[in-house]
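Re: the 306-residue chain
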Amino acid sequence: MKRLIFIVFFVLLSSICSAQSFVSEGDKLRQGGNLKEAIEAYKTDFHKSPKNWKNTYNLACAYALTFQKDSAYHYLNIALKDDTSLWALADADLYALIDDPRWLDIEGRQLNCFQKQNGQLEQPEYALKLLNVILKDQALDYYIDQAKSYYIKNGNLPQWYYPLGSYKQEIYKNEYDKMLRHIDQYGWPKYSKVGKLAADAPLLVINHHESDSVRKKHLAQIKQACMEKEGSCMEFAKIQDRILVNENKPQIYGMQFRYNSERNLEPFPIIDPEYVDQRRNEIGLEPLKDYLKRKINFEWTIIQKE
């Protein structure tokens, strides 16, 4: 069960398809694992509001998750028509599309639109490689999330989780090896050179690696990037806490969770918990009460001191 927790909950970025403030009927069906019904709901909303790019994007994602590539590309091109972000290039829900020649057009167009809006990246080629690593590293997460939901409901894992979990570990290793080659060629990625989304790719890959020796090896570099505002302090905190939790030590920032006897998530024990917000504030993180409520709907009640 420990492995399932790590696979599901230590993720750098949530899929844009599920990160919506408004949850439509299509979103609900998709999150519940009903992709066929979700597609029909998204299509209904598309015909009502064809300019609602979020719904159109989610429709493309749902088609991609069912490996209906032509339909996915059709709606993805509509959704991204006026989009200037790079989110789609790191979205694992689109994993089924990346071996198609049409994906190169998506990459080139989104990179051009992003740079017109935000300025030229110093290392645009490196940025694309990093975004691809993020996407591949999170491949199959939608299906594994369904295993998590099954466990919460039934108290045991579905049989189909195990081959996916094993394959995920293989993906993690492959992406880590690829990341090392990228770093050897281009150097440690920085926000100022490849953008914030791409620069955090190594943190995702390192956090997902099965070996704590890998996390320890890179921890100083990750912390340095955090302190220099060239990398994610949230991911540094997750990795630091994961190392401690895996050594049966109390965590520092409260970033690692476990299932309790009622199959609800709670944070692993925290050292001097009354001072955790002070430590979090020092690296720019929100109060733990707010973070836990948002992430796992957990009520943190320990009064904080300075």
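Residues 1-16 have pLDDT under 50 and may be disordered.
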